[in-house]
Design a protein that fits this description.
By secondary structure, this protein is of the alpha+beta class. The protein has 2 domains: 166 residues, Jelly Rolls (Sandwich), CATH 2.60.120.10; 104 residues, Arc Repressor Mutant, subunit A (Orthogonal Bundle), CATH 1.10.10.60. It has a 6-stranded antiparallel sheet with strand order 1-2-9-4-7-10. A 4-stranded antiparallel sheet has the order 3-8-5-6, with no helix packed on it. Helix 3 packs antiparallel against helix 4. The chain is elongated, with a radius of gyration of 23 Å.
């Protein structure tokens, strides 16, 4: 079954009272609409992060050596360069690491706020595409983060106004880097053919393994929420229905091209048992796997 694991509201929860709390140097919580700003210093090592409901924009502040990360689009390894940014998408478990001590800061951007800005601007809502796949530089974003640290405060009226304006400016910078806004062509933006093909290839490779919506969204470098809508707009099927169709497609091929027992085919294609395969196969093809095999031969 394809499901979305319940994410934390913000990565700030992990750095304020989770296992990374000892690394926190400063934090500003409740900036604007539920946003948070955290500065932290960590020793060398690997740091897996849970999925969160927000976007997290992280800035390298101080460090050297090598860093690596996987934010849903595969592992990347590169030199630790102060000023580089990484944008963590919502709903995806991620992992960061470095071979030397390092200092970073991050700001959480609530997905609802980001989605609202994208929608009101007339942009096609497809998240930030390639910004989730690699580190990037954006001096304007770094300056806005400096402004947040120096001026924004949740306990003052002017600080909250500055924080909200700064977060809107950050979203605008990210939209520009991602090639947005684009004119709306009507309806929800559909997933590109290239990404649909990438998802299909991944599904066909992992049919015999358990996987969920978050796994498929990570292949497309989108949040689960946007992936579901964009994928259905492109294919006419929900991700779950698409995965089931791929399982039936593989089962049909194995029934015709191999002597593999039906029970084994069920297992290879990701069905719970032979009965599950038979029920699903009849629903799609109108015949049982055994009869289909006989008729094709």
């Amino acid at each position: 079954m394809i499901e979305i694991a319940e994410p934390l509201a913000s990565l700030a929860e992990v750095y304020s009272r989770g296992r990374y709390a000892p690394y926190t140097r400063a934090a500003r919580l409740g900036l604007g609409p539920a946003a948070a700003l955290v500065r932290f210093a960590q020793p060398a090592g690997e740091y897996p992060d849970p999925p969160t409901a927000d976007y997290t924009l992280a800035l390298n502040e101080r460090g050297a050596g090598r860093m690596w990360f996987d934010i849903g689009c595969g592992r990347r390894e590169l030199a630790f360069v102060p000023g580089q940014l990484v944008l963590k998408p919502p709903g995806v478990a991620t992992s960061f690491g470095a071979d030397q001590p390092h200092q970073k800061c991050f700001v959480s951007l609530p997905a609802g706020m980001v989605d609202g800005v994208l929608a009101e601007s007339g942009a096609v809502v497809r998240d930030f595409d390639a910004l989730h796949a690699d580190a990037f530089r954006a001096p304007a974003a770094a300056r806005i983060l400096d402004l947040l640290w120096s001026e924004a405060a949740p306990d003052s009226a002017h600080g909250r106004i500055i924080a909200e304006g700064a977060m809107l400016a950050l979203i605008g910078v990210l939209m520009g880097l991602a090639g947005q806004p684009q004119p709306r062509r009507g309806g929800q933006g559909a997933l590109s053919a290239l990404r649909v093909a990438r998802v299909r290839d991944w599904v066909m490779t992992h049919l015999g393994e358990p996987f969920g919506l978050a796994d498929l969204a990570a292949v497309a470098c989108l949040s689960p929420y946007h992936f579901s809508r964009s994928f259905k707009a492109a294919t006419g099927l929900s991700p779950r229905a698409f995965a089931q169709a791929c399982r039936i497609e593989r089962a049909r091929h194995l029934l015709v091209e191999t002597q593999m027992p039906v029970a084994t085919i069920a297992q290879v294609c990701g069905f719970s048992d032979q009965s599950h395969l038979t029920t699903s196969f009849v629903r799609v093809t109108g015949t049982t796997p055994a009869r289909f095999r006989r008729e094709q031969r």
